[in-house]
Design a protein that fits this description.
The complex is a heterodimer of chains A (261) and B (141).
Chain A lengths: L1 H14 L2 E8 L2 E7 L8 E2 L6 H11 L5 E5 L1 H12 L8 E6 L3 H7 L9 E3 L10 H7 L3 H12 L7 H5 L27 H10 L8 H5 L6 H16 L25
Parallel strand pairs in A: 1-4, 4-5, 5-6
Antiparallel strand pairs in A: 1-2, 1-3
Chain B lengths: L10 E6 L3 H10 L8 E6 L7 H9 L4 E6 L10 H18 L7 E5 L5 H18 L2 H6 L1
Parallel strand pairs in B: 1-2, 1-3, 3-4
Helix pairs in contact in B: 1-4
The chains are: A alpha/beta (261), B alpha/beta (141).
Chain lengths: 261, 141
């Protein structure tokens, strides 16, 4: 698979200023902007990394460059939501997509483990839904509360969930605002910190699950965000990351985006 | 203090400047009896009420939060309350997901001319919260 992608990247390097992908060097893998003449043998596909954040920074810093990016299904969904919010210029980006393996789709509970037009790999069957979602959704209020309080009490407020998130790009973050999150308190008092983030993820979260992977306290954040995704689909018929033409409903009027129930 | 339970709830009510706040004012002018539990926060539009404000109210000791604004179609800013109408049901569900009773938060449309409705809504909500008991039990137990 990687040979086909290297080929596609080499081809794109003719028309783009560079291609964002992962590179293995000195025993570690990190994002890298491959340019003409770079050794493509160093290119890697794993582990997963939200490369669209890198693309967004490059697009903002260099307003004229054309880029390519090697992307998974989740990266493409992230791109869709970022482009809608003016974080990436779609006219200056080419996506070199590849499908994840069936094992990866299972492990990520990924419902859409491939970009729309992959250049390599065959799209596997979607992974199962996260079993924790149904489990905690059926608990009575008190048990849910004790579960989440215990989970949130592990938080060390590293902001890793926010920093890794491709959809978290606000310059002024509500989670850093002293009016909403008191400084100096660890763990952040229930229910401030995590509910603010969960609420802001409504209509944005594309279920890439990077936040949960990165969390050093192993808080099952995506259970909450999956529920928010379900709500935004039920309430407004919106699936984040699915359609670049669909406007995000929370900033539209009720005539433009009516409530479904 | 309520006689039955000895619990007197604190309720933060966000009211929009153009409709509900005027409605509340009119209720006062007409000497209607509205609950003393309501702590009014006047905002320029119910669309200004961010989820953080509601969460902060709960965190600061409110037992219930009311968000009140103009009826859909009457918004002073045309579509400000449309955003409230979409945002607040999401927040309400989210409170339920982490185990805070969603009944503690309510969205209501009250216009400037609806002083009796203001009284009705606030009384019914206060009664509901009184029956639910203090939130502190749920949050800090």
């Amino acid at each position: 698979m990687i040979a086909a992608i290297r080929e596609a990247v080499a081809e794109r390097l003719g028309s783009c200023d560079g291609v964002v992908a992962l590179r293995r060097r000195n025993g570690g893998v990190a994002p890298h902007l491959f340019q003409k003449g770079d050794e493509l043998a160093e290119m890697e596909l794993s582990p997963r990394y939200p490369l669209m954040t890198v693309v967004s920074r490059l697009h903002k810093a260099f307003p004229a460059i054309r880029l390519g990016v090697v992307a998974r299904g989740c990266d493409e969904r992230a791109y869709v939501e970022m482009a809608k919010r003016n974080q990436i210029d779609p006219t200056r980006l080419e996506i070199i997509g590849f499908a994840c393996t069936a094992e990866e789709a299972q492990a990520c509970y990924c419902r859409e483990p491939s970009p729309k037009h992959p250049v390599a790999g065959t799209p596997p069957a979607p992974g199962p839904p996260n079993p924790l979602v149904a489990k905690y959704d059926s608990l009575p209020l008190e048990e849910r509360r004790s579960f989440w309080k215990k989970q949130f009490s592990k938080c060390i407020k590293c902001y890793g969930c926010r920093n890794i998130c491709p959809e978290c790009f606000c310059e002024a973050c509500a989670m850093e605002d002293m009016a909403w999150v008191e400084p100096g308190l660890l763990a952040p008092p229930f229910p401030t910190f995590h509910l603010i983030r969960a609420m802001h993820m409504a209509s944005r979260c594309v279920a890439c699950r990077e936040c949960e992977h990165t969390c050093p306290a192993y808080i099952p954040l995506t259970v909450l965000y999956d529920l928010m995704r379900r709500d935004i689909a039920d309430l407004l018929g919106y699936i984040p990351g699915a359609d670049i033409e669909a406007q995000q409903p929370l900033s539209l009027s009720l005539e433009q985006a009516p409530l479904k129930k | 203090m309520s006689v039955e339970s000895g619990f007197d709830p604190k309720i933060v009510a966000f009211m929009c400047n153009w409709c509900t706040y005027a409605g509340a004012d009119n209720a006062g002018v007409a000497r209607m009896e509205s609950p003393h539990n309501i702590l009014a926060v006047r905002v320029m539009c119910s669309g200004r009420v961010s989820p953080e404000m509601v969460i902060r109210a709960f965190r600061s000791g409110a037992d219930g939060v009311l968000v009140m604004g103009c009826h859909i179609g009457d918004c002073h800013y045309a579509a400000g309350n449309h955003r409230t109408a979409k945002r607040m049901p999401l927040l309400r569900n989210l409170l339920g997901y982490v185990g805070i009773n969603p009944e503690r938060m309510e969205l209501a449309w009250v216009s400037a001319g609806e002083a009796p409705r203001f009284v009705e809504v606030t009384q019914a909500f206060t009664k509901k919260i009184r029956n639910l008991g203090p939130l502190a039990q749920e949050v800090t137990e």
